[in-house]
Design goal:
The chain is an alpha/beta fold. 49% of the residues lie in helices and 15% in strands. Its EC number is 2.4.1.1.
Length: 817
């Protein structure tokens, strides 16, 4: 374990360092400084401390010739960094004491830090967790992403509707960033391929007359917990090659003089630009290439600086592409090796396949990216040529093994010929990788049976499973200090390095005093969340009610509608029998809808309109509250997760690859109600079926119904609660000023075919919720099950996931001491 900072530097030295950083960053003396100034000073101190360890980790890595993991992801949802970094450095307590001396609480100071706008949901949070765990374990790694100037968007709720505003996370500057102007690479677009010979054949590598934008690096350190390893999150910012067209400016065309700069620098303005327009889709396409080109150029340049040949690339670098967004890495690495470095095609292809691996996160065909062929023709013509050649070679191999099977060739080709021609990025990623991993056991098996059935048969053994994990030091130790302290008082602190040690809590399940303390920790977290809810929304909620949370991206397959229909059914039951014995429940929603996803935004509106009616009905009182907390983020999740009693993981079976929110809430003692989908199955197996509320169609049953055997209306006719809830939504009960407002939702569930089987699972879901209420009424039994959940969460650590990646895919090892 790395020594506590207080043993390395005396407290007086820390005080002087804090004051020095305060003066340097604000020009203010301590007596005049405000909380925001002390935040900047504390971050400055943390940067100073982490830099020393960061530099030594780089030197050690180069001395040992260690292999690096390079994780390519469009999202890195890192959250606030101050308290995590100070804890990992062993400096938290001494900094807290120094701030107390000047009249400030460190947690209040940390609350002022702004979440970096670098992600949206589980994909980005997973990337951040894995980067954290590589540093804790000691595996050298780089996270490669984009520096989005305005994030995805800041979500505001106006009259129940989601509205989007720029996410101003850089308004105080990138306090954790180290600008690396020395690391700038040209990224090329458009242009044409030179022709040679009378037949007009294209000469490889002759991609000419291109437009060029510069990628400049900004580094954020990722310090490992109780480790001397500090890894790097390297973010690319787009910069035009020409800041100003002086001739146009002097001619009076002041806007036109900066048009080129504005156009190219928009590449890194926002995450996931709205793809409802051709311009938005083209911008996404360019963003993805910008990420992989800059990152691969950087990797090759670093390798050369270390005196290594490109033949050593597979022994020194492992590139993991997170979903299909960075799949262009396959074609770009080939281009760099062949065109820029003179390798033969076969040599480059051997290196590429040994370096790259691909994590799949979805089974839904529409989510497996397909880019129009014309985008490649116009924007990346050389890459289209490379993709054609890889595809041609692959299809020839397939045809030799399965002569005459034209349909097989059509299915596995990189080029989708149906309608407008597209490039199937998942097929490119699969063929260009040596390993393809799913992120839960069932997801991996379904990959083999569905979207990649043909490719798995042709290239057997490439698909493996690595179940996702989460950073327990943030999501349990950091977010839930009451529970952290209770656990450590019983089993010590070793669980923060090895989460499997939580199993030592199992003997305390039957300890009445421990159960009482466990409930007290949950009650304190619920009170803190209730205070936040009242401060943010004005709504008072009962802390003795079930805190029932569904917090995740708003999407039809995640089935926020199922939870909301249940809430309406509960509302009706209380209205119909106000004197009855009803279990109090607080239903919490949070999550963002993609700006162009009209149905998801309508669902947010419906949640808010139902909440407005229910929360103001005097017959209901505290027995049912519904709320939507806006602008979901890591920091908001850190408030919600420790307080949750019931974790809603209710996606249609076969649609959620894994999930990570399910892990976070179970780790904090929530019980899960969930379908047999994604990592829910492994959580149920880990905690015991009796401590998990499973319901709903299985993947096999869903597959059967999808083959034309589903009649949504038949389920509607069987359930009076469901009929009443849908009728109220459809007839304007919750939207009296626009009674047809929610008809599209009703139609999607009834006449529209109910694609995600909400109606089919409703009755089963309501039944399991009745079991949940009966269990919650027995608080001793509920607490037993909650403790068992926490105690069995060891395998869902991102540390375990990184060890699996390192062993099964990357072939990397921790740095030697």
């Amino acid at each position: 374990m790395f020594p506590d900072l207080s043993k390395v530097k005396d407290k007086e030295a820390i005080r002087r360092s804090l004051e020095r950083h305060l003066l340097q960053s604000t020009g203010m003396e301590p007596e005049a400084a405000q909380a925001q100034h002390w935040l900047g000073a504390t971050i400055g101190l943390a940067r100073e401390l982490v830099s020393e360890r960061w530099a030594e980790a780089r030197r050690k890595k180069e001395r040992q010739g260690a292999k690096e993991a390079c994780y390519f992801s469009m999202e890195f949802l890192v959250g606030r960094l101050l308290t995590d970094t100070l804890r990992n450095l062993g400096a938290y307590d001494v900094c807290a004491e120094m701030l107390t001396r000047v009249g400030y609480n460190i947690e209040d100071i940390a609350e002022l830090e702004v979440d970096p706008g670098l992600g949206n949901g589980g994909l980005g949070r997973l990337a951040a967790c894995l980067l954290d765990s590589t540093a804790a374990i000691g595996i050298p790694a780089y996270g490669y992403g984009l520096r989005y100037e305005f994030g995805m968007f800041a979500q505001r709720i106006k009259e129940g509707w989601q509205s989007e505003e720029p996410e101003q996370w850089l308004r105080f500057g990138g306090r954790w960033e180290f600008a690396r102007s020395d690391l700038t690479y040209p990224v090329r677009y458009h242009g044409r391929l030179a022709e040679s010979g009378r037949d007009g054949a294209t000469a490889p590598g002759q991609w000419i007359e291109c437009a060029t934008v510069l990628a400049t690096a900004f580094d954020i350190p990722a310090a490992g917990y109780s480790s001397d390893t500090v890894n790097t999150l390297r973010l690319w910012s787009a910069r035009a090659t020409h800041e100003l067209d002086l001739e146009r400016f002097n001619a009076g065309d002041h806007l036109g003089a900066v048009l080129d700069k504005a156009q190219w620098e928009s590449l890194t303005r926002v995450l996931y630009p709205h793809d409802g327009t051709a311009a938005g889709r083209e911008l996404r396409f360019k963003q993805q290439y910008f990420l992989v080109s800059a990152s691969l150029q950087d990797i090759i340049a670093r390798l050369k600086r270390q005196g290594c040949s490109l033949d050593m690339l597979p022994s020194r670098i492992a590139v993991q592409i997170n979903d299909t967004h960075p799949a262009m890495a396959v074609a770009e690495l080939m281009r760099l090796l062949v065109d820029e470095n003179g390798l033969t095609w076969d040599h480059a292809w051997d290196i590429t396949r040994r370096v790259i691996s691909y994590t799949n996160h979805t089974l839904m065909p529409e989510a497996l990216e397909r880019w129009p062929l014309r985008f490649f023709e116009i924007i990346l013509p050389r890459h289209l040529q490379i993709i054609y050649r890889i595809n041609d070679s692959f299809l020839k191999e397939v045809a030799a093994r399965y002569p005459g099977d034209i349909d097989l060739l059509r299915r596995v080709s990189f080029i989708d010929e149906d309608g407008e021609r597209h490039v199937r990025m998942a097929n490119l990623a699969f063929v260009g990788s040596h390993r393809i991993n799913g992120v839960s056991k069932i997801h991996t098996e379904l990959m083999k049976r569905t979207v990649f059935a043909d490719l798995d048969r042709l290239l057997p053994g490439r698909i493996i499973n690595i179940t996702n994990g989460v950073a327990s030091r943030r999501w349990l130790a950091g977010a839930n200090p009451d529970l952290r302290n209770l656990i450590s008082s019983k089993i010590g602190n070793g669980w923060m390095r090895d989460l499997s040690e939580l199993k030592q809590l199992l003997p305390f399940v039957e300890d009445a005093a421990f159960r009482a303390d466990f409930r007290s920790a949950k009650a304190a977290n619920k009170q803190r969340l209730a205070n936040h809810i009242e401060a943010e929304t004005g709504l008072s909620v009962s802390v003795t009610s079930i805190f029932d949370a569904q917090i995740k991206r708003i999407h039809e397959y995640k089935r926020q509608l199922l939870k909301l229909l249940h809430a309406v059914a509960l509302y009706n039951r209380i209205r119909n029998n106000p004197g009855g014995d009803h279990t109090a429940r607080t239903v919490i929603f949070a999550g963002k809808a993609a700006p162009g996803y009209a149905m998801a935004k309508l669902i947010i509106k419906l949640i808010n309109d139902v909440a407005r009616v229910v929360n103001h009905d005097p017959l209901i009182g505290d027995r049912l509250k519904i709320l939507f907390l806006p602008n979901y983020s890591v920091s908001l999740a850190e408030r919600i997760v420790p307080a949750v009693d019931l974790s809603e993981q209710i996606s249609t079976a076969g649609t959620e690859a894994s999930g990570t929110g399910n892990m976070k809430m179970a780790m904090n003692g929530a019980l899960t109600v969930g379908t047999l989908d994604g990592a829910n199955i492994e959580i149920r197996d880990a905690v015991g079926a009796e401590n998990f509320f499973a319901f709903g169609l299985t993947t096999d049953e869903v597959a059967y119904l999808e083959k034309g055997h589903y009649d949504a209306l038949s389920y509607l006719r069987r359930d009076n609660d469901l009929q009443q809830a849908l009728e109220m939504i459809g007839n304007g009960f919750f939207s009296p000023s626009n009674r047809d407002l929610f008809q599209p939702i009703v139609q999607s569930l009834t006449r529209g075919g109910d694609r995600f089987f909400v109606l089919a699972d409703f009755t089963y879901y309501v039944g399991i919720q009745a079991e949940i209420e009966a269990c919650y009424a027995d608080q001793e039994e509920w607490t037993r099950r909650a403790i068992i959940n926490t105690a069995n969460m060891g395998m869902f650590s991102s540390d375990r996931a990184v060890v699996d990646y390192a062993r099964e895919i990357w072939q990397t090892r921790p740095l030697a001491d």
